[in-house]
User: Fold 7-carboxy-7-deazaguanine synthase from Candidatus Methanocrinis alkalitolerans.
Amino acid sequence: MIPLYTDEVGVLAEIFSSFQGEGPLVGRRQVFVRTAGCNLSCSYCDSAKSRREVKFCEVERDPGSGLLLRRNNPVTSSWANEEILGLWASGTHSVSITGGEPLCQPEFAAALARCCAAEGLPVYFETNGFSERRFLRVVDRIDFAAVDVKLPSHRACPPADWLRLVENELGCIKAASRAGAVTIAKVVILESTPIEEIDRLCPRLEGVEATFVLQPASGIGRPSPEKLMLIHQAASEHRGDVLVIPQAHKMMGVL
Ligand code: SF4
Assistant:
């Protein structure tokens, strides 16, 4: 039999079924495949565990049970595919390939997306968008793209690298939109976020077909209602569809 995809190996942190907690697809049931390792260091990061490479991939085969099965890393994309299919149930909307940062393992991320596409499962791909070139390897296999835009004050990278980072992020957003993926551009807002950074960013997204989401930070640095209103107003001067959506999975207490 001719295989539908090439098997690849990579490092995963978790596979589980839960509800999307961010952005316009909030509340949708998804199978999450969380890659391990990230190249950025955002001040608000809440994925400490998946920022580094981990020894085991943890799988919650019984959704919501908290019972985790461990599999040694690296794992193969065909093994991950079997776990995804085992978790796919009635009411599941899509497979969320997330991180960490999936584009740190571009071949593996592409293989995961290919596996899902071969099974007819819609793919929601979440990335910090650091490399447009790597993103172009997966964009044709995904149905939904959620791309972060980092502001200088997020301290995601050394200041000298920020311009290159944001150009890549904007490139990924435009590439996803051009490819016909439902595209989400997300910016995390902290109390310390300068309005001028939003003023400078938003004109770059004018005319791009993407849902623009301001996500208030949940923990330390959470913005005041007044700050959120001011930031929303500043963004809305450039786009008519600015949404403010908090992280709902933290309220639900799910993974
Ligand atoms: S890109 Fe995401 S995972 Fe990486 S440091 Fe920033 S918030 Fe954390």
About this structure: The pocket of iron/sulfur cluster is lined by residues 38, 40-42, 45, 47, 51, 99-101, 128, 156 (CB under 6 Å). Residues 162-178 form the longest helix (17 residues). The mean pLDDT is 94. The CA atoms of residues 6 and 232 lie 44 Å apart.
